[in-house]
Structures
1.
Amino acid sequence: MTGASAQDDSPPLEYQVKAAFLFNFVRFVEWPPAAFRDREATFVIGVVDDELLARALDQAVRGKVVDGRAFEVRRLQNAHEAGFCQMLYLGSSETSRLAGLLRSIRSSAILTIGDARGFTRLGGMINFIMQDRRLRFEINPDAAERAGLRISSKLLQLATIVRDASPGEDGR
Amino acid sequence: MNARGPCRWNGDSKNQEGGRTMKHARRTRPIRPGARPLLAVALWILWTPGAAAQELPEDLTQLPLEQLMAIDVVYGASLHDQKVTEAPSFVSVVTADEIERYGYRTLADVLRSVPGFYTTYDRNYTYIGVRGFSRPSDYNSRFLLLIDGHRINDNFYGSAYVGTEAVIDVEQIDRVEIIRGPSSSLYGTSAFFAVVNVITRKQADLPRLQFSGLGASYGTPAGRVSLSRKFESGVSVRASASAYESGGQSLFYKEYDDPLNNNGVFENGDDDRYFRIFSTTTFKDFTIQAALSSREKGIPTGAFDTPFNDADARTLDERSYLDLRYERALSDRVGLLARLYYDRYYYRGDYPYYSPYPTILLYREHSWGTWYGTEAKLTLKTTKTQTLTTGVEYRDNLKQHYRWKNVDPGPLDFDDSRSSSEGGLYVQDEILLSKRLSFNLGLRHDQYQTFGGSTNPRLAIICNPVEQTTLKFIFGGAFRAPTVYELHYGSHANSDLDPETMRTYEVVVEQYARGNFRVTGSAYLYRIQDLVSVNTTTNLFENLDHVRSQGIDLELEKRFKSGFKLRTSSTLQQTRDDTTDRLLTNSPRHLAKLNADFPIKGERLSAGVEVQYASKRVTLAGNYAPGYAVANLTLLSRQLAKGLSISGSVYNLFDKTYADPGSEHHLQDTIEQDGRNFRLKLTWGF
């Protein structure tokens, strides 16, 4: 059944669903006011190393407004460019690259999201995991707290919690 | 459509042959009027595969997290996806995105890009070939072309146009589903070698207003404007109008290389122009589609024995239709689709002839086809494991009119009109035996006023031995009804013709692997019976040829996270005449394709590279049209500025000289194709 969707001009369903998750996360996370330049500033989602997800996000956020803010998707080569982002998706699955990217934005008020084994233990905040062909996610609330982000309890209830010290459950 | 007449009427044989045709041109008995309303009431329900699929909204962001977490993302499953891959066939899909990225200009460009397909251009019409089969001058009557489910093949020649003569702009297309092999068990006549199902773009996908302009080689400007609106009342409208003009080239043919024929150079005869209007209006469950297209082309080859380098030889094709569709899910288990349509086709061919040399007289051929029809289709999910689809279809060919006339001055040589009707009834049952095994059984009976009936089955076993592997075993049957042209009007008309038939056996393997990697393989055997050919002794069309074709297709596709996309395929086949054991003409033993889409800078800049190879093909004269490989390159920027996109294409990048086999209407054994040529296109929408 993926035959057709693999050729569809919209990204594969997995990416569309991930994009929908990202959009939904906005409603369940509170950013400090300093994370935005002003009240009208757009909400910027940065994407590193995943063009398909960027395309899915382009479609997902088109015309959307949350809390008076419109959305913008930026394709980034490196986390250094993530200064104006409120959310950053890291598509890489290489531990060394992820560690470097996450280190460079540590303690910025940026919600980091990834899709790689060990992402949360490297300091990432939300990590997608695939279970029974469905997307689940794990959250490291400690990492979010360090960055000054407040994640609602509703989102935490749906997630697998990974503490800095805990062994985690990010297997797939 | 072209000059099925002139090949008969040229020169001295004109009058006597005309007489023979008159004899054949008896009017058929009009159909009993009482039968019509009954059938007209019957409704046509389109395939609604939703029952088995995950029902997902267009905009996934509207779903709460809990529901997002419940989506099966491995087997992506919007409604049409289910349909395509559950189809008991080897299916390809070409999307709007690919049409843009690879710079496709016509449906022919789209079809050429998929495994097993090739096209032949005689510098007037474009013919589709698939799996080694491309019948000369068949106007694609062995392919079924649908636009949003509406049958495009006309009621005179059965033609399905895909070149500049096609009904629709490729910019209007959301995707093209190409279903190989016979599908007569569902669609009836012409669903012979393949069904090409064009699905047009939805109103929501289009900007409110869009302008597009292009310039291309051979003096070609073209423009298009489209509108898309959704009103408060719930009515949504999209409409588009386009115009195209091409001056064409001066063409050299060595067969005419003598002083009497301008030393083989045909000047000012390759012009091509069309306009198209297309609109779709949707309100609640109703959709009205209206289409009109008109294409005029010079015949720059001296075909049909017209004087070489005479620009008066030309054809005009007009196609229009009005289609009213009602589509509704009556419940979770029942889907209904009903359709009512009215269609027209008109062809005019101008053929100058020496009568006698050096006096040139212009002859004009006309064909009119008018028909209406109605269809109804009901999809019932009777149990959790069974989906039943049944439908009925009726077509009334109000007018099938043919005229051949000596224009200046001249009396009417031949003028006759007839009408006929046909209907079909079918049922398809999909049975899910277990999670890993399903059956697809289909049967359709068609009844024609002209030749009688034809019944065609399809049986497919679809199994998933492991989750990412699909195996399909398919047995299918198809028919192509003889056209009114072959029965009554053609130069070789024979009212005793039977339908052409075929039986096929095919195995398809689809393998998906992690990381968006897909492999599809297919092996097939086609046995084709009673192909209509001219018997050289009687000079009439007869059900003469029997053909056996076997081959394999292999396709690989991989999408990378970077957005880079690669698709490549290879087809090996052998198609032989059963009697002579000779290879068929215009039948490449090997086809190979490569499509690569490079995102250079996101949506800012991407490059689409395409390479197509066809091995040598036997020509009518028994020579070979040599094998060739042609590369095309398109650079696309979708975000040049807000709402502005630009694309630049180079076709036949390396200026490869290659030629397609000619037909019996040509003196040329092969007809050279375009060399390197360019197109620049700007689209602005807001």
2.
Amino acid sequence: MLKVDKRYMSYFDWELVVSIVLLCGVGLVILYSAGYDTELQFSPTFRRQFFAMLSGFAVFLLFALFPQNFWKRSSYTFFTIGCLSLVAVLIFGSYAGGAKRWLALGSIRIQPSEFTKLTLILGLARFCSKQQEKREFEPYTFKALLGPFFVIIIPSLLILKQPDLGTALGHILIGGSMLFVAGINRKTLFKLSVFSAAFCFPAWLWVLKDYQKKRILTFLNPEQDPLGAGYHAIQSKIAVGSGMMTGKGFMKGTQTQLSFLPEQTTDFVFSVLAEEWGFLGSIVVLILYFYLILRLLSIASQSVDSYNSFVTVGVAALIFWQVVVNIGMVIGVLPVVGLTLPLLSYGRSSLITVLAALGIVSGLWSRRFLFSR
Amino acid sequence: MKLVKDESLFAFRIFQVVLFISVVFVLIIFRLWFLQGFKGSFYRDKSKNNRTRAVRIVAERGYIYDRNGKELVKNRPAFNLSILKEDVEDLDRTLSLLSEITNVSKSELEERIKNSKTIGHFQPKIVLPDIDRNTLAKLKVNFYRLPGVVIEVVPARVYPRHQLLSQSLGYVREINKDQLTLSEDYKSGDLIGQSGVEKILEEELRGENGSLKIEVDARGVKKRELGSLKSKKGQDIYLTVDSSLQEVAEKAFEERKGALVAMDPNNGQILALVSSPTFDPMIFSKPLSNEDWRGLSLSEERPLRNRAISNHYPPGSTFKLIAAVAGLASKSVTPETRFNCPGYYTLGDHRFHCHKRSGHGVVNMQQAVEQSCNVYFFNLGLNLLGISELHRYGKMFGFGQQLGIEILGEDSGIMPNPAWKKKIYKQEWYPGDTVPVSIGQGFIAVTPLQLASAISALVNGGILYKPKLILSKKDGVFEEKEILHKIEVAPWILETVKQYAKSVVSGEHGTGKRAAIEGIAVGGKTGTAQVVGGKKDENNKKIQDHALFVSFAPVDKPKIVLAIIVENAGGGGLNAAPISKIVMESFFGIKKDTEIVEGNR
């Protein structure tokens, strides 16, 4: 099954790999600074991330080797495993910060809601490509959307139950983006917007937890509660702003080194970058992300198989939405929800998921010579 | 293959997406420019004047108590004089003033600042750790003149009983580089358990560190508290040890090297665990000179070593109790079986001697145990049982394996058999190897802990308990007792051997008479372990044998078991049995008869 054809190498998308490696490198530089201790040059966080990165790249290469029909055939299996692991979290999961998000496998703790982003992409791509083939690629009508709706909503609800609003929303955004690219007819799009607007009110009343509501309210007016819920938003803005154009310099960020933000290695990692490397550093990273996403979309539009296309769009959506929501939170334009910055944030589950997803895309794309158009 | 209904439509959707993404990225860049460019200097000022400081509050370590709630380890507040350089206005002036107050020369202060460890920029550097109260008072008066000088209050570890139980309690020291990688919760300068209970219960004892956000003024003096995450004190731990018994037992060794284990035979709980000589864990509270460290770790005395669990010794004649059980249980002999002891035993052309050169004459098992006749057990061990049976019963009683006491460093001892010899020495097992093993010499070696556990199993009706040193934590109890296994031997056999052991202490010819105490029947067995190869000390004198003694009391329903070894002291009856007496008397609350104690010297 794992034959390596010479052509794979020449068809391999090296530009994609370079941008991934650069982003990972930036991530390590930031973590090095954020975890620095005079006695211990490399903090435990840094070490763990470094080794997770190595295993992430191993997964990347491994997944790139599997042929398209393997992914196509096992998409539903992966999707099911993903959903079951979310059920397992609700039953056996361990509490951290008021939510059940973690599953302990021996000494390793994993966060299944990170992996299910990928299994959702695979499952939905398989479902839509089959469905759309049958429907001869007519744009989705409201009725036809019912199937995909269930595929998306099952993992999302399970995650909402943990509760993890940010990640659940992430799943919905990824699925929605894939459906949009698959094509939704105009009337249906309109209906959908009306429906989701109408959904917001009961959601506020019954679905959202108090602390989630508080976060949203605080976002609208952070100065109201500067030491409580608004603390993050304010300190993060100070960190970013004080970086000015060229930054305070490597390991010289006062906000960072004084640990104003407890989550500076995870959700607020961008604030460390912006403080120490300034506007210029931030722009460089944004351009890298922008390039990565465009490259994925370009691959998606050139793919000859709708399954490949949908998977690639899904991965692009995963990266795009996480970047936007995470950075939006750090720069104070979106509420504080816990979504990681892909490839930069500390977190093994998140890092390995993103690298695995990119590995699948690279593998599918490098086999394009097998399909004649 | 067809991908879409209309390819241009698909391309248009991708175009829409790219457009959307571009707009979003441009918006993000605008926002960044707004924060970092347009309002950059505003936020830069804000960050400079961000006089909020995140201070780490180190959690207080849990206390350790004995079984009766007496303090064995506690904390006291220590005051560190630190400097936060970023807040200092004039370093030279500050140092001059500090030098005046503390009587430490300015150059030394400078040196200390240079070498001081910190956990990152903008964190105070410790200049003088643990300053005294007088200096503290003087500092407080002058505080307003010393911007950037910080007094940090940190908990320091105190061992109020000093050397008592030190090897088992362990000690704490400043964390080293390797240990720093263990967890994100540790920072340089933190204390961490290095051995004993302090190490094995590090997680429980450590507690959870807190943090405090404070706003400071331009001098770095606290203006107000902005919020805090309280630190959580570590759990208090209760040990099974009775500290007064421990103290008596340690004193009984009178500087001699050796070990003692006192165990409750009904649950495996350790009542006293002596390893002599000991050390005072307080010496680790300040930086240790290389000389001190060498003295502790490398000297012949090895005070850091927990002899009671980490050293193994030949059990000597104390093993005869186990051999007796093996003989009866395997039906090799009955209590009435007799052997003649002419004072030696001949195997081939080699003579194995009895300790009584003139011989014990014809003896049954009771007499053989009471008088510790070697020849009886040579006959039993070599001719009737054989090494595999001795091995089997030895294992049953817990020899040759770790028993699982909570603290680290337990030795497994040696319960030899032919396979073992083959593996270690690549040699066959000879009958001449079995002969010494049947009297607890030769290849067999046990830890004092194993000896105490084996005797406990003998006298409690055949239950081998896991030795327990840790009784409970404050919230939540550890298992009170844990059975390793039950020894499948008929109760009458254990009872019979127990009575034989009683005659060792109270019998007419008993070798353990010195262990007898008033009013309570004591059982025991002496042992004298030859030091291998007749080693000589530096004065070319033959190094003395190890003195051993095991005992239990009261015989009918034992509440305490002792295993005692005194290194290079000579015969067990003369040198180890008196320690048993002292400890038993204390345990049963019998007044000490000073005359007899004197007589033991």
